[in-house]
Design brief:
heterodimer; A: 107 residues; mainly alpha; Helix Hairpins; B: mainly alpha; Four Helix Bundle (Hemerythrin (Met), subunit A); 3 domains
């Protein structure tokens, strides 16, 4: 039973890598700030999957990777709450959320 | 190929397709749907990694909280459909692809060099020692060794809540 497909480590690592790829491409490519935030969430998800997979396959005797995956989830939730508050402020002030048009960040 | 492998392939395909949809789709609502699909796929991958607690937390926090928050932001910000030019210039697409591909190849090289010697025969399998990290172990870890990061996370969440409230109050005062 060693050659089951879900027992290979590199599949998880490459899935996490593809999530990182999509996230970086989306942060550069998206125009609206919400699109950039969605891409940031993809990057966070990839990091969590990476930590959990490495914990499962490299050091299966303790659970530090899973604990830090939970910590990453908390950080991502707090970050998205703050970012959406800032996006709301930007929309109230400028009436748009285009990332490229925000040239002045002062009053 | 048994049933577990087929479900695993479906999960991986949902994750990859959701991530691609979150980046490439023209509408921001479809991008959010793609993000939700990718998060569900990752929850399934956590189950395959023998950690159902992480899977439940993934569904609770990401699918339940973060995506609903983003959906509320989309609804509050309003008519994004008047500017449907999410597909911007070709140059920007090429630039994004270039930046992402450079990082992708760097990390592919890193993964192959670190774990490449175990790739063909696939040695580090679930064979080695049995993996028995339960929810109880994770809870004990949080209250024994990782007390400081746990408290720092709670502090971070409190500061984030206060910051969001302050942002809302300041925006109301300025109007």
């Amino acid at each position: 039973m060693t050659d089951l497909l879900y027992n290979y480590q590199h599949i998880y690592l490459f899935v996490a890598l593809f999530l990182l790829f999509c996230g970086i491409a989306g942060v550069v490519y998206r125009r609206t700030l919400i699109g950039m935030l969605v891409s940031m969430e993809l990057i966070m998800n990839g990091a969590g999957l990476n930590l959990a997979a490495l914990n499962r396959f490299v050091s299966p005797e303790n659970g530090y990777g899973m604990a830090f995956t939970l910590i990453i989830m908390g950080i991502a939730a707090a970050e998205s709450a703050i970012a959406l508050g800032i996006i709301m402020l930007i929309f109230k002030k400028y009436r748009h959320i285009e990332g490229g048009d925000l040239k002045e960040m002062k009053d | 190929m048994n049933l577990g492998e087929i479900i695993f392939l479906i999960t991986v395909v949902a994750t990859l397709g959701g991530a691609a949809m979150a980046v490439l789709s023209g509408s921001i609502v479809y991008a959010l749907l793609g993000l939700v699909a990718a998060m569900f796929g990752i929850a399934g991958l956590y189950i395959f990694l023998n950690s159902p607690f992480l899977s439940m937390m993934q569904i609770l926090i990401y699918v339940g909280a973060v995506s609903v928050l983003i959906a509320f932001a989309i609804m509050l910000i309003g008519p994004l459909y008047r500017k449907p030019k999410e597909w911007t210039t070709v140059g920007k697409f090429v630039a994004a692809l270039g930046v992402a591909l450079v990082s992708l190849f760097t990390f592919v090289r890193f993964v192959m060099e670190t774990f490449g010697d175990t790739l063909p025969q696939g040695v580090p399998l679930a064979e080695s020692p049995s993996f028995k990290i339960t929810t109880k172990e994770i809870g004990r870890l949080f209250f024994n060794d990782l007390v400081l990061p746990f408290e720092l996370i709670s502090l971070l969440v409190v500061v984030a809540i206060l910051g969001a409230i302050m942002l809302a109050l300041f925006s109301r005062g300025n109007k």
